[in-house]
Amino acid sequence: MSDGDQATVLYVMTHGVDDPKRCATPFYLAATAAAMDAEVSIYFTMNGPTLLHKDAGEQIGPKGPDGERLKHFIDQALECGVKLLVCQPSLDLNDLILDDLIDGVRMIGGAAFNDMAIDADAVITF
Amino acid sequence: MSDGDQATVLYVMTHGVDDPKRCATPFYLAATAAAMDAEVSIYFTMNGPTLLHKDAGEQIGPKGPDGERLKHFIDQALECGVKLLVCQPSLDLNDLILDDLIDGVRMIGGAAFNDMAIDADAVITF
Amino acid sequence: MSDGDQATVLYVMTHGVDDPKRCATPFYLAATAAAMDAEVSIYFTMNGPTLLHKDAGEQIGPKGPDGERLKHFIDQALECGVKLLVCQPSLDLNDLILDDLIDGVRMIGGAAFNDMAIDADAVITF
Fold it and tell me: Which of A46, A115, A118 comes nearest B25 by C-beta?
C-alpha cells in the first residue's frame, strides 16, 4: 500500500456456531487491526452468519462453557470500529434473515465483496 | 492494483464433497467476479478436487437433496469464464486422476500457484 | 509488488492434528515458495499450533498411517527457510505452551500478524 494511506483489512469468516473453537480468532485479530487504525471489516459467508445470531454470543465461546463468551469478542471488535458484513445467499443457506442477527450487521452482495477484496491491503479468510 | 488494469482474483477451495454446505460459495463469488470483468481462477487443493469429480455436480448441493445442485454453480462459473485449476499432489491425496474430473480443469504445480497468488489482486481461500 | 523486490508470502494454518488430510499442503506450498526465493512464513492460529507439537510430526500424515509423515513436510519447509510463527492466544486455546512445540517456532501477537498480512504480497489461509 502507499505510504500515508490507511490500511484496509478484510477478514472473511466461513465457520459458525458448530465450530466454537474457531469463533473468536477473527474478531480478536480484526479488533487488533482496527486498534492499529486500519479500516477493518469481517465478511460472514458459508456457515459464518450463524455467529451473528442474536442468541449465539452468549451460547458459545472458544474455550467451552467456562471460558469467555463469543459476545466478549464481538463487542470488542465493534468497539474498535470493525464493520460486520453478511453475504446475502449465505443467510438463506443457514435459514436466517437479517432480523435474526445482532444490530449493526450490513448485508452486501457478491460484487461488493469482490470489490472490497480487490481493494483491500490484506484479505484473511478463516 | 494500477488503474486501467484488469483485476485478477484467485479463489482457493480446500473443502470437498464431505462439506456440501460449503460447496457453492466459491463458484458463486468467482462467477460474480468474472462477470465484473476480473480474470478469475479457482485453485482446488486439500479436499477441494473432489468437487470436480464428474459425478459430484449432480450428487451434492449446498442446501441438501432438494436444493440447487453443485453443477448449477460450476456451470455458471465456467460460463462466466472462471478457470478451474487443480493442485497435483492433492489429486493423489484424494485418490483421483485428472481424467476423473470434469472437462476443462487444468493441473498446475505449487510454484505456478505461488506465482499466481503473488500476482493476484486478491487471494480468497475457502 | 515492485520489480526487483523479493516477494513475501504469508501462509496461515488454522487446522490441526484432528484434520490430518489438511496437514501437509501449507508446508509443501510454503517450501515451494521459499525455494522460489520468496520470503515465506506460516502463521499457526485456531487449531493450527497442534501441528507444531513435538510429537505430532511422527504421529500423523496426510495419507494416513502408511503415507509420508507430517515431519517430512515440516522439515522440508524449514530447510527451505520457511519461518514458523504461532499466535499467542491460540496456544492457550489448545492448552499448549511454547516449550511443547518443535524448536524454532516464534510467538507473535495479533498486531505483528496484521502488519505482516498488510505488507505481504500474498496471504493464503488454510
Answer: A46
pLDDT score for A5: 76
**Cross-chain CB nearest to B21 (options A46, A114, A115):** A46
Residue B92 φ/ψ, nearest 5 degrees: -60, -40
Instruction: Look at residue B4 in the predicted model and tell me its pLDDT.
Output: 58
pLDDT digit string (tens) for B68-108? 999 999 999 999 999 999 988 999 999 999 999 999 999 99
- Which element (helix H / strand E) includes C29? helix C25-35
Set of cell numbers at residue B83: 478457470
Closest CA to C7 of C114, C123, C125: C123
Backbone torsions φ then ψ of C108, nearest 5 degrees = -130, 160
pLDDT per position as a tens digit, B5-34:
799 999 999 999 999 999 999 999 999 999
Q: Which residues of C touch B41 (CB under 8 A)?
A: none
In A, minimum Cα distance to C15 occurs at A22
